[in-house]
């Protein structure tokens, strides 16, 4: 017998061990498509769940270079509100999105909140003498402060804002990189901090630090890939434009020669016009990629977009002599994406399939439900197929199997699918045609796993 479970905060009741509740809430933040700020809010939620977990308030500092800056604060204003927050988190059916919205509302609730006041706090991490809160982050050590008003290492401007005599400082780091710090207290209930609270907070800090580091590292990798792609595109565009521009320049110089006769002048003008047309073709083919503006996905119906692409003039001309089978399942859920970009991506795939298929061949387009209410769209041709070496690099920019192609079409399709949270797969064998599958999320936000 096989049983499957999906974990969420609502699976755990108040009497569950707090370690399990803490890990449940934090683990959700690692797999959600929200900003790092929203995910950090969820981590703070795991630490400020009233009497359920233990701490009343959490203050987050972020490291920027050698400076530790106040970022945000989360917590209740009273014991009653602390209990109500726990009630919200324990509501049956509550999910990650509800937690995010609840936290955002808490941060917006007061014009003169502690959240705004801590943004004015900044501390050096490398200038001696270090004070608290900079000291725990710089030393990468959890610091438990008791009798704070009498402790000379505690910065008094920070303490005047915090206004408690006991608090816990948990550094956020990964390896040698300092990422921030969380300050925890029980200002509402005045319950003393215990050793088990320190252990839980330390565990949370380790997980949060590694999450922040991996997220930051991912952003750096994406930026490096983007810069590499831009550099590759610049070289490609330069190569594409160099020959036409050189030809235009050379024949223009000949036109300026007063000894040219009318026949030669006309010939030169014809050549210049053809080279300008080449330049226009290059820019036209690059324009969809260059002007692509990745926006937040919206929900839309797939069948009307498919129908519009199939009825376009270009596709109608190319499908002459080729049988095109279309099968779109009725009642498909709306998918997430950009209908304009999706239409252009589909046009690219159909263009490729029709160009690859010989007269008398067949192109099949299918759209139907996948798992978890997702939608799968497939395009199959009966062309020559792709060599294995090409198939592995088919979505890289400027790679093409066609002599006059610029190789940006499939790269564009891949970008469109990535932007909407979907994915694209390709199956192909030499002599057996090529199959592309597009996997879309439906409007409920769940990814189709294929």
Query: Outline, from the CA principal axes?
Result: elongated
Assembly status: single chain
Name of the CATH homologous superfamily of the largest domain? GAF domain
**Compute the gyration radius: what is it?**
30 Å
Q: Distance N terminus to C terminus?
A: 23 Å
**Could you list the spans in which at least 5 consecutive residues all have pLDDT below 50?**
1-16, 445-450
Count of separate structural domains: 2
In CATH, what is the class of the largest domain? Alpha Beta
| CATH architecture identity of the largest domain | 2-Layer Sandwich
| Strand-pairing-aware structural class | alpha+beta
Largest sheet, strands/sense/barrel = 6 strands, antiparallel
CATH fold type of the largest domain: Beta-Lactamase
Helix content: 40-55%
Strand proportion: 15-25%
Strand order of the largest sheet: 3-2-1-6-5-4
Number of helices, where a helix is a run of at least 4 consecutive DSSP H or I residues: 14
Number of strands: 13
The overall pLDDT average reads 76
Element-level helix/strand string: HHEEHHHEHEHEEHHEHHEEHEEHHEE
Structure summarized in a few sentences:
This protein is α+β, with helices and mostly antiparallel strands and 450 residues long.
Structural write-up:
The chain is α+β, with helices and mostly antiparallel strands. The chain contains 14 helices and 13 strands. The chain has helices at residues 18-29, 36-47, 79-89, 96-108, 114-118, 134-139, 156-162, 195-255, 262-290, 302-310, 313-318, 339-356, 388-391, 409-419; strands at residues 57-64, 67-74, 122-124, 143-146, 166-174, 177-185, 298-300, 323-328, 335-337, 362-369, 375-381, 423-428, 434-440. Helix 2 (36-47) packs antiparallel against helix 8, helix 8 runs antiparallel to helix 9 (262-290) and helix 12 packs antiparallel against helix 14 (409-419). 30% of the residues are buried.
């Amino acid at each position: 017998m096989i049983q499957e479970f999906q974990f969420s905060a609502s699976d755990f009741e108040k009497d569950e061990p707090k370690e399990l509740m803490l890990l449940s809430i934090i683990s959700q933040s690692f797999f959600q498509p929200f900003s790092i700020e929203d995910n950090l809010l969820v981590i703070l939620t795991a630490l400020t769940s009233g009497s359920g977990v233990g701490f009343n308030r959490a203050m987050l500092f972020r490291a920027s270079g050698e400076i530790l800056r106040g970022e945000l604060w989360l917590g209740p204003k009273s014991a009653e509100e602390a209990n109500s927050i726990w009630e919200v988190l324990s509501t049956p059916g509550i999910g990650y999105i509800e937690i995010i919205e609840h936290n955002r509302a808490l941060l917006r609730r007061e014009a003169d909140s502690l959240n705004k006041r801590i943004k004015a706090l900044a501390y050096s991490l490398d200038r001696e003498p270090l004070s608290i809160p900079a000291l725990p982050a710089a030393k990468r050590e959890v610091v438990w402060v008791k009798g704070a008003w009498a402790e000379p290492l505690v910065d008094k401007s920070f303490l005047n804002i915090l206004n408690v005599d006991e608090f816990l400082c948990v550094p956020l780091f990964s390896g040698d990189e300092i990422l921030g710090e969380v300050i925890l207290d029980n200002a509402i209930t005045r319950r003393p901090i215990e050793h088990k609270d320190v252990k839980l907070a330390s565990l949370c800090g380790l997980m949060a630090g590694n999450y922040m580091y991996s997220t930051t590292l991912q952003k750096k990798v994406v930026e490096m890939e983007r810069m590499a792609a831009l550099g590759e595109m610049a070289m490609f565009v330069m190569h594409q434009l160099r020959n036409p521009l050189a030809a235009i320049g050379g024949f223009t110089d000949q036109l300026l020669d007063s000894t040219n006769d009318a026949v030669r002048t006309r010939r030169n003008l014809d050549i210049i016009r053809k080279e300008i047309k080449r330049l226009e073709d290059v820019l036209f083919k690059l324009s969809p990629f260059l002007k692509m503006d990745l926006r937040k996905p919206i929900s839309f119906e797939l069948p009307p977009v498919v129908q519009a692409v199939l009825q376009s003039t270009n596709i109608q001309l190319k499908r002459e002599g080729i049988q095109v089978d279309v099968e779109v399942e009725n009642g498909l859920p709306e998918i997430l994406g950009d209908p304009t970009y999706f239409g252009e991506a589909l046009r690219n795939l159909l263009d490729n399939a029709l160009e690859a298929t010989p007269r008398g061949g067949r192109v099949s387009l299918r759209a139907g439900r996948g798992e978890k209410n997702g939608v799968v769209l497939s395009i199959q041709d009966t062309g020559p197929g792709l060599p294995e070496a090409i198939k592995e690099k088919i979505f890289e920019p400027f790679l093409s199997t066609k002599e006059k192609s610029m190789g940006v079409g499939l790269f564009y399709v891949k970008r469109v699918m990535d932007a909407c949270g979907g994915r694209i797969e390709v199956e192909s064998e030499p002599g057996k045609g090529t199959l592309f599958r597009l996997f879309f999320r439906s409007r409920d936000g769940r990814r189709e796993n294929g």
